[in-house]
Write a structure and sequence with these properties.
51 strands
Length: about 1200
């Protein structure tokens, strides 16, 4: 080991120069990953052949190729001082290779590294020194704390994919950024490497110019043009909480893990003591979710480390006694390394600020195009320089902090942490907290440790002079982390809660990058917790503010109204008191109704966002209509014009809405409107919709005027901006007159989502212009956008306000091939029935046809089904609102409506039901179908309707009745099993065909008993149509606790159904056509997520009838998926199509043809099967059996 004049070091582990044992320097893996990123451009092949072929023989070339590996989201990187990597490039460029050709390839690769890392390209004249061990702490660490990164450190150059075909590859002044970055979304991806046969160069016997090397390591900015793109700077700054233009910041570079491992093996890395050098591979812990863990020692230890880093030591000549795993003084030799993760960051556009400054002068179309461009902006891989820090301390029976109940008082005691861990903000919060317990209390059993986190509630402002909740009495408090709830929610959610999202809930700004945690320990799983009395549900009282779930599972801010031993009744802030709900106080408590499935209340803002504290002028909020009823409020969108200071006196609220009042003081009878945490801050909002709706009315034409109050004026605002109730009025920010956008109305976030996975505005084809709302209110109306869909007919549908039930249904019907072709070929125009009193005069059919044609035109990537929705609502008032509806009910109505609009029967005769008891089943089925055709004959009858045989028996007299009923869908009960085991679709069909006794609501009238009886009923399938719709009966009726009404709760068990080959042969009683057997393939699934049919969200998974691929349709989003992905607990409607052949009228057409029966002659046949003919006298008589 060489001796260094400037600072002496010793090796913790001897270096191994045998590359066969170095898994991290795999040549084959390096070549594969670098080459794969550039195969997209054919012109780059010749350039890559120069670098990748033949197999590299020099370590410098391998290391350069490792630096050029494309970094993906979830990859691991390490931070190095920019100066160290710059010097290493100079040094590597001037290293000798086995052959001139090898050295030429290495030098070319190193120039590419410099170009794409934003460094000065090396030359033979470049001045350099031997790199020596990596010393990141000298530049990047906080003085005296080598493991703590300076908050001013920023990324010098982003991770870029290598492109050898770039014409500027040899031009050091090029600044053009790569535009085809395509990061993968999988987190935690690690490359697996294999051994290599490259021989490493031996470490130098001596190192000269150590002082120059140290100066180079301390150099933070180079006097050359920085080629890093501004977009990457902005993205990195936004993610890491820094300002990319801050001249006080220090540069670092993020290098791939494979390259860093190579450097560590060859040059070593300085340890935490500032003296030892480690050549060991990374610790096993570094491969987990924790990026760094430091357990704080005492101040004397930290001072000792600081002295050792800054005092020269005598050279060490004998290494044999110093090789080991520790420093010889009980302190572990920990390398100073800054391990980080690559996460997704949004690519910034430098011109944004200039355009936004001129937004008012842009045309509506220009505004649309600007917003669409921002929505289409891709994400890019960005190294997370400053991860989230979890500061922790331990608390147990022996280390409690001077409180009478043996608990640490977080509100008064200064925070003295026992250590910290660093975790990526993109990691799972549950995984991070689990890892924290593992490293902070490694010997504690799971049942003997739990976590409390500090939550900030600072507020320096006006409050109402009335008793307030306990949480308002402190600026911060420790709250128990509901670890079990978080795990349960993660299990149900497709997107687990991230560390970044969880930390945002702890502070006002949401930008803090650390959280303070207390780990509470107890002696055993049966012992009591030291802080048990401080648990939220043990100290909860009337008037406290908490977070609480509603019956749909969504979390809201809430006020505690009543507390019992087992339950807590809450009032949801911003909602009328009719929605007040009684929740469980403890996880094992029991309350009636749907609320029994919900979690107990949680601490305030632990589940809900702190949106009020982050509002700015110009933001949109929901404002209660001034004329709203207390129990049925109306909500409009309002724009914030002014934000009053928290310390401002509370202004009079003129022209506001009537609000419910509550008895806030148990000692007084006085009642007041609710204020969250009793805070008195106010905002000035403009509600344009109220101005337009009330214009011309006595109230609207004469707004309330009052004298200007001093609090109305602000030195930063125009003096003319004075309240003009009710259109421009002050409201209490923490009151119930204002809510976060998205509480009652749809938020703008839905508008900003991309239409499809592939969205292109084609040349010469302009998007449809977005119009202002008819009422003149703020915001845009969603309209169709032109662009190329991901596949023919796979077009997104805008959500027009809880219209996902419509979108889900239409997406499935859209791929009902015979029906869709019927509309696309305009066959429907000749069959429109405008005189049918049961139809819409053809309006529904024409609106549906127009939408289907647009979906298959190839001109649109997203459509607004506004015409269909409005047309349906005009003839079905139950859909004339913005409420959520059942997709099965809508599907049934839409198909019935289309059938009536396209019914070929112009005049419907009166037809009595056929009693089939005593008749041959085949004959009864034929005559029942003929009677059906007398009133119903359309494309939907041809392909979508079948018959089942219903057999009723009176339990009193034994009277029997057999009817053949026509159906367009089959509602299947769920054969639920214990422990939520998977249910087979076949079991549901068998359960549907089992006998049952009707209840009183469905009683049958027995002609013999002459009264309604609970008959025994048997149902069997007689025939099945070409298109079969199966409805899984997931919803059951429950009584609402607050209103006493009926709510439908959901069975979310998974039903396993076949994608191909659903064979119903054994279930069919009627004749089967061998050319069109009852074997089906799935082509659509309407899916529901949520607790009730009238809440939650509907999506669809459909098989495209053209390319045969599966697509998931989530309103305006359309993306590729698989049919198996639809087999979930949310599958609600299953759409099947006959796999082979076609059978008109579910096979009845062929049956009647074979028997020579006229299908349209049913009017002249009585129930006994005799034809009626006229005699010469004009009288009818029975003539012959048909």
């Amino acid at each position: 080991m060489p001796s260094y004049p400037a600072r002496q070091h010793r090796a913790v582990s001897p270096v191994n120069t045998d590359m066969d044992s170095q898994a991290s320097t795999s040549v084959s893996e390096t070549i594969r990953t670098v080459s794969a990123a550039s195969h997209a451009k054919a012109t780059s092949q010749s350039a890559f052949e120069r670098l990748l072929e033949p197999t590299p023989e020099s370590w410098t070339l391998v290391a350069a190729l490792q630096l050029l590996q494309p970094q993906e989201i979830g990859d691991t990187v390490y931070l190095l001082p920019t100066g160290y990597l710059q010097n290493w490039l100079y040094w590597a460029y001037n290293q000798a290779s086995a052959s001139p050709a090898e050295q030429s390839r290495a030098r070319e690769a190193l120039k590419h590294v410099a170009l794409y890392m934003g460094l000065v390209p090396p030359t033979e004249e470049s001045s350099f020194s031997d790199p020596g061990p990596m010393d990141a702490a000298g530049t990047l660490a906080v003085q005296g704390h080598p493991m703590v990164l300076k908050p001013t450190v920023r990324l010098h150059r982003g991770l870029r994919a290598f492109d050898a075909s770039d014409p500027s590859a040899n031009n050091s002044s090029s600044t053009s950024p790569r535009s085809h970055i395509s990061p993968k979304s999988s987190l935690g991806h690690q490359r697996q490497t294999t051994s290599s046969h490259i021989k490493l160069p031996p470490k130098p016997a001596s190192t000269k110019n150590m002082v120059a090397r140290a100066k180079m390591n301390g150099h933070t900015h180079f006097d050359h043009h920085d080629t890093m793109s501004s977009s990457l700077n902005k993205a990195s700054a936004a993610l890491n909480g820094g300002d990319s233009n801050n001249s006080d910041q220090h540069d670092c570079v993020a290098v791939p893990e494979a390259f860093y491992n190579s450097l560590r093996n060859v040059h070593g890395v300085i340890c935490q003591d500032g003296f030892s050098v480690s050549f060991q591979p990374a610790r096993a812990q570094s491969e987990g979710i924790i990026l760094q863990h430091e357990s704080h020692g005492n101040q004397e230890d930290r001072n000792m480390i600081h002295r050792r880093m800054n005092e020269p030591k005598s050279p060490i000549h004998s290494m044999s006694a110093l090789v080991g795993d520790n420093l010889g003084n009980g302190k572990e030799a920990v390398p100073v390394e800054y391990r980080r993760k690559v996460i997704a960051g949004e690519m910034a556009v430098g011109a944004d600020s200039k355009v936004e400054a001129q937004m008012e002068r842009l045309s509506l179309m220009d505004k649309l195009m600007f917003e669409e461009e921002k929505r289409r902006r891709p994400t890019m891989p960005v190294p997370e320089i400053h991860p989230i820090k979890f500061l922790y301390r331990l608390n147990n029976n022996e280390s409690n902090q001077s409180t009478s109940n043996g608990s640490f008082d977080a509100t008064t005691a200064p925070w003295q942490s026992d250590g910290f861990i660093l975790v990526s903000q993109a990691s799972s919060a549950v995984d991070a907290l689990t890892a924290l317990i593992r490293v902070a209390a490694p010997k504690a059993a799971n049942q003997t440790v739990r976590i409390w986190s500090r939550r900030q509630y600072p507020y320096e402002g006006t409050t109402r002079s009335s008793p307030v909740a306990s949480v308002t009495q402190a600026k911060s408090t420790l709250e128990l982390v509901a670890f079990g709830q978080m795990k349960e929610e993660n299990r149900k959610s497709k997107r687990p809660l991230t560390v970044g999202e969880w930390v945002k809930r702890h502070s006002v700004s949401g930008s803090e990058r650390q959280v303070e945690c207390l780990l509470e320990l107890r002696q055993s799983s049966s012992a009591g917790w030291p802080r048990e009395s401080l648990e939220l549900m043990r100290r909860v009282q009337v008037g406290d503010f908490v977070d609480a779930q509603d019956v749909a599972g969504k979390w809201y801010e809430a006020r505690v109204c009543n507390v019992t031993e087992t339950s807590v009744k809450v009032h949801y802030i911003g909602w009328s008191s009719k929605w007040d709900t009684e929740l469980k106080r403890w996880p094992d408590s029991h309350v009636s109704g749907l609320a029994n499935k919900l979690f107990p209340p949680a601490s305030l803002w632990s589940r809900t966002p702190r949106w009020r504290e982050r509002l700015t002028v110009g933001d949109i909020v929901e404002v209660r209509d001034t004329s709203s009823l207390l129990q049925r409020p109306k909500w409009y969108k309002g724009e914030i014009k002014r934000i009053g200071k928290p310390s401002d006196p509370m202004r009079p609220l003129d022209g506001g809405a009537d609000l419910e009042v509550y008895q806030l003081d148990a000692e007084s009878e006085e009642k007041e409107a609710l204020l969250l945490l009793d805070r008195g801050q106010q905002i000035l909002v403009e509600v344009a919709q109220e101005r337009s709706e009330k214009a011309g009315s006595a109230f609207g034409s004469s707004p309330v005027h009052r004298e200007i109050q001093p609090a109305d004026l602000d030195i930063n605002a125009s003096a003319s901006l004075v309240a003009e109730p009710p259109f421009l009025r002050w409201v209490n920010l923490y009151g119930e007159e204002v809510c976060e956008l998205g509480t009652h109305l749809k938020s703008y976030d839905d508008v900003k989502t991309p239409a499809t996975l592939k969205y292109d505005v084609e040349t010469g084809r302009k998007p449809v212009e977005i119009m202002r709302t008819p009422s003149g209110g703020a915001g845009f109306m969603r309209e169709s956008l032109r662009g190329a869909p991901p596949a023919p007919g796979s077009v997104g549908l805008h959500n027009l306000g809880n219209s996902c039930f419509l979108n889900s249904t239409v997406q499935c019907l859209n791929h009902m091939e015979p029906i869709t072709q019927y509309f696309l070929r305009d066959t429907y125009t000749g069959e429109l029935n405008r005189q049918n009193p049961l139809g819409s005069g053809g309006n529904v059919a024409m609106a549906y046809a127009s939408l289907i044609k647009q979906m298959w035109s190839g001109d649109y990537s997203v459509l607004a089904p506004r015409s269909l929705k409005q047309t349906v609502a005009a003839f079905a008032p139950q859909f004339d609102n913005s409420y959520q509806h059942d997709s099965q009910e809508f599907c049934q109505f839409l198909m019935d409506g289309l059938h009536e609009d396209l019914n070929r029967v112009k005049t419907k005769p009166y037809v009595e039901e056929l009693e089939g008891f005593g008749m041959e089943d085949q004959r009864a089925a034929i005559e029942s179908w003929r009677k059906h055709l007398l009133r119903h004959d359309s494309i939907f009858v041809d392909h979508c309707q079948g018959m089942h045989r219903s057999h009723l028996t009176c339990p009193q007299c034994g009277r029997e009745s057999i009817k053949f009923d026509v159906y367009s869908s089959i509602s299947l009960p769920l054969a639920t099993k214990k422990h939520h085991a998977s249910i087979q679709l076949e079991d549901c069909i068998e359960m549907f065909m089992e006998g049952e006794q009707l209840d009183e609501r469905n009683a049958w009238y027995c002609p013999s008993c002459r009264r309604h009886v609970c008959a025994l009923k048997m149902i069997a399938l007689w025939s099945v149509p070409d298109v079969l719709i199966l409805h899984l009966k997931r919803f059951q009726f429950d009584t609402c606790m607050s209103s006493g009404g009926m709510l439908r709760s959901k069975i979310d068990d998974t039903v396993t159904f076949p994608i191909e080959g659903l064979d119903l042969t054994k279930f069919i009683l009627g004749p089967i056509d061998p050319d069109a057997p009852p074997v089906y393939k799935l082509f659509g699934v309407s899916e529901h997520t949520g607790y009730t049919a009238n809440s939650g969200h509907y999506t669809a998974t459909v098989r495209n009838s053209i390319d045969g691929q599966w697509y998931r349709c989530n309103d305006s989003h359309v993306g590729r998926t698989s049919g198996e992905a639809a087999i979930t607990g949310g599958a609600y409607l299953l759409f099947y199509q006959r796999s082979k052949g076609s059978s008109k009228w579910a096979g009845m057409a062929d049956v009647m043809k074979a028997r020579g029966v006229d299908p349209y002659g049913g009017l002249n046949v009585d129930q006994d099967g005799f034809k009626q003919v006229k005699t010469k006298s004009g009288k009818k008589k029975k003539r012959s059996k048909h």
